[in-house]
Fold this protein.
Amino acid sequence: MAVVEIEKLCKTYKIGSVQLPALCDVDLEIEQGQYITIMGPSGSGKSTLLNLLGCVDRPTSGRYQLAGKDVSRLGDDELSLIRGKRIGFIFQSYNLIGQLNVVENIELPMFYQGFSEEKSAERARELATMVGLGDRLKHRPSELSGGEQQRVAIARSLANDPLIILADEPTGNLDSQSGADILRILDELHRQHKTLVVVTHDEHIAGRTERIIHLLDGRIDRRQCNHKR
């Protein structure tokens, strides 16, 4: 089943009187359970595509269907609901709230979806344990290493059991050992049939995924894209 179906997707930014095309005529289909890498040089449109996939932004033209629902022209409130319920985000800079501990940071998406305090705390503890932080539940981000903070971010991305998980350079701020630990967690999520889309410059990360999408000048470079298994 296709989780993502994109047809002729374009995004143009207007700065004053200047039109700046960021993506043009992108066609992309992502099946449930696929582990995909998006690669390309700076300015190729990777972040723009990730923002569109994550319903953070709307396309200028074209169509984006998420699990069969056309989200291309939805309003801000509807997009916000979809982001909260159906999409998990993992950021290079973690984006944790410094005043909250591990459990509280993981609970946040559930809080916005109206989960009870008891249910959200229980699930947050389970997710923290799953990513190896069962003994760090009450620690705040400042008391955690970068790798541990990214584990919290991964657990938070799973809180609402999303359709798709989007990761933007998830190991970009980490040392090699911490980065390897994060990649093993992503590998395990793939084995659990989670749908993963990772933006990266790292060929090593791309080598672990089953499909690589190369962007060049806002378009998919079909000469380099591949399905590996």
About this structure: DSSP finds seven helices and eleven strands in the chain. The radius of gyration is 18 Å. The longest strand covers residues 2-15. The helical segments are 46-53, 76-86, 102-112, 117-130, 146-157, 176-191, 203-206.
